[in-house]
Amino acid sequence: MARSDIWSQVAPLLREVERPGRYAGSEWGAVRPSREGFAFCMVYPDTYELGQANQAVRILVNRVNAQDDMAAERAYLPGADMADAMRAAGVPLFSLENTTPLSEFDVVGITLPHELCATNVLEVLDLAGIPVTAEDRAEDDPVVIGGGPCAFNPEPYARAFDAILIGEGEESVPEVLAAVREGRTAGLSRRDILEALTQVEGVYVPLLQDPAADARISIRKRVFSGFSDADAWEPMVVPFVECVHDRLNVEVLRGCSRGCRFCQAGMIYRPVRERSAEAIISAVERGIHETGYEEVSLTSLSTTDHSQIADILGALNARFADTGVRVSIPSQRLDSFGVQMADAVAGQKRGGLTFAPEAGSQRLRDVINKNVTEEDLMAAVDAAMEAGWQRVKLYFMIGLPTETDEDVAEIGRLASDAFARMREATPPEARGRLKMTVAVAVFVPKAHTPFQWEGQIPAEEARRRVGIIRDAVRFRAVRVDYHEPKTSFLEAVMSRGGREVSLLVEEAWKRGARFDAWTEHFSEEAWVDAARAVGVDMDALAHEAHPVDAPLPWDHVDAGVSKRFLMKERERAFAGALTEDCTFGACTACGICESAHSGIIVQEERGSHG
After folding, report:
1. Architecture (CATH level 2) of domain 223-330+580-610
2. Which CATH class is domain 352-560?
3. Are 3-220 and 352-560 in the same CATH fold?
4. What does residue 356 show for φ and ψ, rounded to 5 degrees?
5. First and final CA of the chain: distance in angstroms?
6. Left if phi > 0, otherwise alpha if psi is -120 to 50, otherwise beta: which for 66?
């Protein structure tokens, strides 16, 4: 179907739906590739305004378009109103660049950014006219590949994908596309092409590889060996509609070795790799020039951990003084240095500072290896007040392993003490402007972390513990918000489940589940009925602990950090013992340096040993 044919059907629908700019394409910076050659479409399984800034989509589209005889385009899941309108009108899901139906691409890639996107993956495929399971696809259907953070437990998504890429995709995605192209050029069958993909490092083919039947299967994650030396500037699209994180993003650092025991990202993205200050400053200058953005975010898991961050911010402030350009960092380190760095980029804008103590008591912070103290928080609050900040947000979790009611009450006490500190540093006539938000999330056990064996507390218990926090807060200006436990429960099911959960996802989607991360769309009934229909005990998956000596559904994925290290860290957690960040101390023997590809150089100038 030609572009004009698709667009003539799409245009009338845009008059009837919200935010039609989501579907218009032709944004500034978008590359409309020729339809000649091998075609790849990269999909974010949620709406345009959420996915447009996703760095995985941006990076991989750029990487593929840089290959000879390959072309990459983008697609996003339409909003619910547009999806319904497209189905009614018989319009297939299409790419933005050339308005090409996804079913006409050679390969379709779908990133998995969070657990609640699972039904959206099936919605994408169905809207595209592509069978939602790999086993039902015909010879001429696109090869459907997945990747992203959730791929580190691929089993709940296994039936939807022909291949799942574990780890970083800068090198593996072009390799997979080349293998598919070569197979099709040679006239190989779909099954033979999938067999060839099993030979690409980091690629898992669920249809041909079943760890339940063959315990020898091991898929080692891919690590982009050239991150530190690669150009920090990634060409980006400037949207016509308002989007989440609508600003220039420059990735400055990849990985984290602080070792928080609940944090999956801190485990799966090791080793730590930095880009140089010169490369970062150059990328910001070029990005501002090419996009026209007036705000740039220096992104990473922990930007203030970059060894040259003070120099980088100083140089950028000097370069863009009096231009209206503002530099931001995504989160603050919980100490006075973090506040100093936030102050360095704030200019005249004093919105709010965000800190993440994670737990209220020192005992529990030691359990989770959050190497901060109450004194660190109070020093950060003092520095914030001295710098003129008036709003503070504190992130905490409830349901962490070994947590007691006393630990929970300490959240309210700690927040109250911090707010009292804010009041003491503020003249009486200005205290009315002070605000504090306590954001509470339910702990979700994640694969490849020291807490991967633990269960999650039930929703009713989570609400009870939130009540304890609210009772312990002493000031009306301290607001307690909490993440809905029902969706955290589903996150735990997806995070901890095996291949049986992929059947659950299909059944829930058939019963209307989609946009599960959206409060207005989440259907608990669809999931409960689906679980009953396919015989999956969601309560057991979410709440029951895994025996430490039993196989885990994701054991066939080698994330680099060894299972032995994770077990040791779990033991240290229950003993309340801290493990020092190897950036600043001795090697913790996590295994990443032994398992990473040759050519990876952990940042020796930072003293990191992995």
Report:
1. 2-Layer Sandwich (3.30)
2. alpha beta
3. no
4. -130, 80
5. 52
6. alpha
Token reading at 225: 């060996």
Q: What's the CA gap between 397 and 491, in Å, rounded? A: 15
Domains of the chain, residue spans: 3-220, 223-330+580-610, 352-560
How is residue 522 annotated by DSSP?
Answer: -
Nearest C-alpha neighbor of 291 from the set 333, 355, 237, 356: 237
The span from the CA of 251 to the CA of 244, in Å, is 17
Position 411, amino acid: I
Written as six digits, the tokens of 380 are 């950060």
Cis peptide upstream of residue 271 (ω within 30 degrees of 0)? yes
Q: Give the model confidence (pLDDT) of 292-336 as tens digits.
A: 999 999 999 989 899 999 999 999 999 998 899 999 888 677 776
Token look-up 């379709």 returns 108
Q: Determine the distance from the C-alpha atom of residue 74 to the mean position of all C-alpha atoms in its chain, rounded to a whole number.
A: 18
| CA 241 centroid distance within chain | 22
- The third-level CATH classification (topology) of the domain covering 3-220 is Rossmann fold (3.40.50)
List pLDDT tens digits, range 335-381.
Answer: 767 778 877 776 556 668 889 999 999 999 999 999 999 999 999 99
Under 8 Å between Cβ of 163 and 205: yes
Asked if residue 487 lies in contact with residue 516, where contact means CB atoms within 8 angstroms, the answer is yes
* pTM (whole model) above 0.90: yes
Output the DSSP codes for 326-355.
EEE-S---SSHHHHHHHHHHHTT----EEE
